[in-house]
Amino acid sequence: MKYTLSNVVNRHARNSMLLVFFAVSAMESKGSAIMASDMTESRLYKGFAGTVDDQQTITGKVSDGATGQALVGVSVVVKGSAQGVSTDEDGRYSIQAPSGSILVFSSIGYMSREVSVSNTQQINVSLQEDIGSLEEIVVQVGYGSMKQREITSSVAHVDTSQFRQSGSRNALDLIQGKVPGLQVTRTSGSNPNSSPAVQLRGVVTVTGSASPLYVIDGIPGGNMDLLQQDDILSIDVLKDGSGAAIYGSSANAGVILVTTKKGKAGPPTFTYSSYLRKEYVQRKPDVLSADEFREKIASGQLSESRVDRGYNTDFYDMLVNHENLSHNHNIAMSGGTNNSNYRASVNYRNLEGIGLENGRQEFGARLNMNQRGLQDRLNVMINLATNFNNANLLGGGGWESELFKNPTFSNFNDDGSYYFDLQSTNEYARLMQETSRRKQQTTAADFKADLDIIPGLRASVFGSYQRNSWNDSQFRPQGSENSLENSDYEGGAYAAKSDFLSQSYAFEPTIQYNTSFADRHSLSVIGGYSYRYYIEEGMSASNRGFINDLFHEDNLGQGTALIDGKAGIGSFKNDNTLIAFFARANYSFANKYMLQAIVRREGSSRFGENNKWGYFPAVSAAWNVSDEEFMQDVDFVSYLKLRAGYGETGNSGFGNNASRVTLGGGGRYLYPDEAYRETYGPNRNPNPNLRWETKKEYNIGLDFALFNSKLSGSLDLFQRKTVDLLDTYTTPQPPYIQSNIYTNVGTISSKGIELGLSYNAISRPNFTWSVDLVGSTTRNTLDSYSNDIYTLDYKTFGSIGGAGALGDAIVTYEGGPVGQFWGKRFAGFTEEGKWLFYNKDGEAVRNDQINNSRNRELTDLAPIGNAVPKYYLSLNNTFSYKRFDLRVFMRGKFGYDILNTMALTYGNKAWQGNLLRDAFTKYSEIDDTYMYSDYYIENGSHWKLDEVTIGYTFKLPTNYVRNLRVYFTGQNLATITGYSGNDPDFISDTGLGPGIDSRGAYPSTRSFLMGVNFGF
User: Fold this and answer.
1) In this predicted model, what pLDDT tens digit does every residue of 108-127 receive, in sequence order?
2) Does CATH place domain 57-127 in 3.40.50.10540?
3) How big is the chain by its Cα radius of gyration, in Å?
């Protein structure tokens, strides 16, 4: 019996178009069915009048025309139909097509080929590399996208093929070391409840927001908690002002645009991705064991004031979660037609930290739907995403106190109960007894509609809503150390709860016009309006003196402290509004000369009354040099483009009421009627002239591909200056009410070079090797911090902390570099082990003879190092052999210093607890108090074997499995460095106070991961 597709459609079109795709899928015997991207419904029916009996099975192999290497993922489509497959890992395909039809072979980076189907049943095809298409990668640029060839500003594009493989805790982990000039540093190590510190092209502010603007699928200020690695398609970074100006006063620190995977036409597909990860402590600080501690006391190397209680305890190890196992699961489904398609995914992940009681569980879902109508003139897209996070916030700290406790003590008394004293906290008992949890939900919804009014003219409207809420709760039972040692309510339990809710709204209509004229000219113009509203509110309450542990934190009113008026309670609410008008124009002549201009006029409720509005202009140009006639005989140049641009952006990331008079409580007083009442008064000076910080940036860039695109890359040189820095300055009283004011004074600048290279070293049928290199260097300077009214010669940063009240380690003077250590210069020790330092005349003197003034003309202090890395470098090698693939990723930081505060405190025998072993070797001469000097400044340069991944892609003898790949990853495998403290990679290198090694750093971990990607 014969069933033609036209009969199926005639019988069931009224019911559902899904039956059409079921029939198409049923006719395929091998390969992955796909939908040709340029098909419309009318074309879907056309050309399928033939019966199933007319079909014949065509098989073959697709290869690279230059190397003969098999090409994976090549689209093979029956022209004029929806029937198609893609080539497998060996470049092979199998498709059913009627005699006389045409097969279309296409793949990104290659020129398409069309081959007629005759009586032969095998068609092998070789595709030629299309140099032009290599520059046609689509890059997000804000309120739209452009082809990479058309880009005139500095934009970095990273897609799924380049993402890191070690299981991201945050979406930014995927691009660490992948973008020149972008620093992504995990200062809290692998703590699952932490986010990385991010900085682009150096420091741009002192007190304002230093975080880039995140835009997720067009949502400004998108919530990164909503992102799962398997849902992300690409990440684009607008690095310079000539591109970022389209976002105005939110873009000083750069713009990071995240694009998630969307639905596309084709038969239903399912993808499952998963990984398991195990972590191990590495680079643990080297301290004395209990036996060594006793021996040092017995030998007189430690004073007898130290107590030996007879135990052997590794307090640090007791905080380690040796049973940690993190896992992630994501399943996605997609399909549909050109007129209606979808993608939906659900995700679950359980991230366990290396610390006890330190982890998070997440449940998430994401839905994308696309619908076309009005004869293909209207396209509507809807995105919905939500994430539920249950975090255990109790653990993750206490490492310092446990590491340097007397190791002959114990966490337990002889009767098995927990040991408590007033000199320290029993961190292990705290983790076993107390609770601290967060229940969080983040949700986002956005809607976009595009309407093609006339050819070239498109109107769009975009709207989004984000909601982020969490509930925190803590409980400390009656028997906990915190409760037993409380002097007001000894033995009474403690409970607290807090709630937070933020909501943000965005509405952005735009209109865009694209046209070409006089053969060689093209013009694209977009204009729009942006409205953003953000509101947040929260409350907190705490109580003590609970007489039992039955209710935990769920009955706060029962605590005794509330009756006594000593309970804690607080709440807040604030909002802000931002509106803007913007426009961008792109002009191209002969596809060789390109010009872009941007202007944005923006107003914010945060600005002062006299500065509600600001302008942010930008202009950039590019020249495709390789298209010029004089380059046609330069064979080694495949592609060459020069770029230059200037742009201004702003920073409005400061408090909502910073420009206004605000009231604060002045205390409770007894009134004549003998009642106590709260008083209120101004606690902030108004500043109607308060305005945004403005960054002015120049960028010159070069994009190139050489030797038949074997070597490609980009080079950028930039210079930026941020003016009108925001900070607090001293004011006279009167006329001012308060002694300080928040105002605009000062300038900070940076300049640098960024380089990205890709090299296809070997490209053979069964073996390939490619190399990617990313490098950058930046210099930051605080040019000025004073004006005619307000004067400030310097700022200090980088608290040393610990014993000795040693203050800040970093001093930044006007005109000086950012991140410079200022301190004493070590000159040796006296015979008694007392410190000696050099004064400004070069004489070795005692500490009490050193002038510690901040006046550079008088002080004996001097620059003793710089905490900002001068060079960043990463190197990625990718190999493939048949179905095996291997990635080796290395990165490092060079030319900078770190203050080893752990050695400063615990390398000194003045400390009464446990000590570093170095206290008896490297630092053995010290017999004096704690002191900050260049004695503890060390070279932080390091090179890390950060990630090695080996994978294998299976070829299964079934039509039901599209792909199956398993892989194994090792992360943080080795570090080459001369630094003696904690892992230098996790020490802050961003902001104004970098380079201070924490005494209680979250443990550096080495992790091993096993993952699988499965499609059917």
Assistant:
1) 667 778 888 877 788 888 88
2) no
3) 32
